[in-house]
Structure formats: structure tokens, C-alpha cells
Amino acid sequence: MEWQPIETAPKDGTEVLVWGTRHRRVYPDQRRLVARYERGWWSHGAVVSHVELWMPLPEPSKK
To answer: Could you tell me the pTM of the whole model?
Structure first.
């Protein structure tokens, strides 16, 4: 799996891993979050204002 441009991400509510910046500034602490695209926005549980990249979620562990 490799990071892909956000423009190519699924827009059907599928959860994906996203990479974005906080408050539209380039901080050294960019965020990796699980999010999904809903009603024109990326929804996630932390403050990320600009989502740049995405990749599919990894397969869950089979323990």
C-alpha cells in the first residue's frame, strides 16, 4: 500500500487512512487518521483541516 492523492479516494463513505495538516499550516506533526468522506467533508476524530493523501486500511490481524 502506498499513499495516493486525495482526489482518487473513494467518496462512498468507505473508511480509509488519511494524511493531513493541522489548521492549514505545515506542522511537523502531520496526522494519520481513519476517516471517511461524507456530505462533502472528510470526517475524523481529530483536528485536521487539510487532507492530502489516502490509502486503504490494512487488513485486520487474524489472531
So the answer is: 0.69
